[in-house]
Every structure is written in structure tokens, then in C-alpha cells.
Amino acid sequence: MYGLLTRLMALSPEGDAGRNALVRAVCADAMSLPPLPAQGEPDDDTVLAEFAEQFAVDVSGISAEQRAAFMSALGDKAFRMIGLIFVADFVPRVRSGLTSLGFAPVVEPVVWDRDTDPLDVLLNQFVPTVGALRALDPVTTEVVRLRGAVAHNCRLCKSLREGAALDAGGTESMYSDIEQYESSSLLSARHKAALRYVDALIWTPSAIDADVVAGVREHFSDAEAMELTLDVMRNAANKIAVSLGADAARVEEGTERYLLGLDGQPVYS
């Protein structure tokens, strides 16, 4: 997993080094975190900078006008650039989270990858690799996923329910408590510790409270804490769809059951 994070940091597609440097600087500044290393100087691109900043601060706040301007300005590079924005946005959060939990730092790249499609590394390699991890129990994994769905207002994510979590005791009553988890009598102390950490990575990654860290360390093993951190990033890939307005629910009413396969890919009935 550390190797995949380093690969994501190494992405600097041919012709986009300046844009990549820009979004890395903008996203880091929005989160008050150190930026990822970048190749060259940032471009001066107001449309891209504003889109990347809103993506990092609150992706659900991207307006139709911002989206249209971004798509028009980037043209056929728009989807690749959103992948780069996501890396600039979320890898610093993960680095901060791992550091706060006492894990070794993620190694920075020494060679730039100018050829690989960012979305291929992100969606076809990183996301399923994290999805295949099984240190966490399925109910905690689902509770964490649904907290991210609410935070980013992903309609698609909110319309889904993972089957293994349902079979292991996850209920709609429990899930409905996620938005007000501190007062819930259905969510366990372990769930609440995880959710505090999720919120910290999403909203205050530069200032993860010592009590939040202590809660994770009290309730989760090293393997579980690592998976929990990576799950927050995996789930946050929904920001890509939300930013494009492509997060429509799979069902008009209620929810749809799916299974997270052993390969980390969702399986729908």
C-alpha cells in the first residue's frame, strides 16, 4: 500500500507538470498541509485553481458554472486532471493520518511517472487493493463508508448497502445514527472512535486531535488502523463522481444491496 501511495505521488503526466504543481499547491493550502512534491513551477490558471480548491474544501459545493468552466478549459484532459486533483487532495490527508497514528512516513518518489494514466493507478489499482483488505470487520467498514458518503453528499454511495455488513448485523437504524453518531446508542465505542477519525481526515486533517488518535489506538490494531485510514481515501474517490455531477443514485427509492468482492471490486445483483 505504501508503494501505491508513492506511485500516486510520482504521477506527473507529460504536458501537465505545471497544472499538477498548481493543484498540489492549492489543495495543500486549502487543508493547511504540506503539499506533495511537484515537478516544476505551478501554472497560473484561475479556473483550475478554483475548481481544485472547492474539490478539497467541500466537493458538494462545486457549482454547475464551475464544473462547466473546468470542463471547457481542460477539454479532453479534464478526467485525467480530476484524478490528479484527487491525489493532490487526499494523499496529504493520508500522510497526516498515518503520521498522527505513529506509522512510518510514506516514501516520496525519486522518479517522476510521466506516462501512466492517473485514473488507472487510482481506480484500477489503489481502490480495489484497499477494498480487498479484510482486517476491519464489515460493519465498521460500512459505517465508515457511509460517513464519507454523507460528508461528500454522494447520492450513489448513499443509495448502496454492502451485503456482508448487513449479514453481520448492520441495520438501517444503526446507519441512520451515523450523522449524529456521538449521541447514538446503536453505534459502539469502536464505531464512534472510527467516525471521529474519519471526520478529522475529511474536515481537519492538519489538526487531528490527540483524543481522536487515542481512540483509534484504543479500539484498533495496527492493521485495522492502517486499513481504516486507507478506507477513508478509498471511499473519498466518490469525490470524482460528485465533482462531475455523475453521482446519481442506482435506485430511485430505498437502497440497493451489493457485495464488496474478494478482489475489492463491487458486485451488484
TrEMBL record:
SUPFAM superfamilies: AhpD-like (SSF69118). It comes from the Bacteria. Gene3D superfamilies: AhpD-like. InterPro entries: AhpD-like (IPR029032). This is Carboxymuconolactone decarboxylase family protein. The lineage of its organism: Bacteria, Bacillati, Actinomycetota, Actinomycetes, Mycobacteriales.
